[in-house]
């Protein structure tokens, strides 16, 4: 079942990233995603980056045909959406460290708003940092990391996470970002015996567990995830190693 919603506000987050706020009163949990239909182009999954009783938002980086087309939308235009899908984050504890990498910061921001937990936002440079105003408003402590050192800690999200885990004990780490970042974050959490919940990403056509394009080992990222615990990820031999393309073929990247 789909809904048609109207864009209420557009926020420029960075030179290539915008947040689209739209009226929608559906119940959505932090970490869930929706499918966005762009007529004549594609239907794509997008994490929900903002949640209120009457509005929701998505944060879009223009990196492909569909997302570039979305960037042409204006306030008042309509979006056709399906969802929400996925399991979302388990936020029963407030003693957590939340980490967003690149545009993956969009997926973790509702958890920051709901919990007010310590937060790390990481990006390649200060030009790529997004959603800092929201994080500054809600996070108990906000730390920034950039690969080139142009803002905050000079290094990546995993390096800064390791520094923070030496200073304070957390019940678990929550994160979303590029798979290479999540892969090394998972390894670091294993080494530190630190529980974590990571939001994984794969190519999705349906978002509802039917098409099989997002399969990783015996799990469907859209239906069984996208959030997985450390113990669950330890069973995924394809994590950080391979993915499936639009035809379901395995593509190695390591």
Describe this entry's structure for a reader.
The protein is an alpha/beta fold. Helix content is 23%, strand content 36%. The protein has helices at 65-70, 105-115, 132-138, 157-167, 179-192, 221-224, 230-234; strands at residues 2-14, 17-23, 33-38, 42-51, 55-61, 78-85, 96-101, 118-123, 142-146, 153-154, 172-176, 196-199, 215-216, 219-220, 227-229, 242-244, 250-252. Helix 5 links the parallel strand 11 and strand 12 (196-199). Helix 4 (157-167) packs parallel to helix 5. The mean pLDDT is 94.
Primary descriptors:
seven-stranded mixed sheet; about 35% strand; about 250 residues; alpha/beta
Number of contiguous helices: 7
Profile the largest sheet. 7 strands, mixed
**What's the alpha carbon Rg, rounded to whole Å?**
17 Å
Neighbour order of strands in the largest sheet: 10-9-8-7-11-12-15
Poorly predicted segments: none
Helix/sheet category:
alpha/beta
Query: In sequence order, what are the helices and strands, one letter per element?
Result: EEEEEHEEHEHEEHEHEEEHEHEE
Instruction: State the helical fraction.
Output: 10-25%
Morphology call:
globular
Average predicted confidence as pLDDT = 94
What percentage of amino acids are in beta strands? Answer: 35-45%
State the total count of DSSP E strands: 17
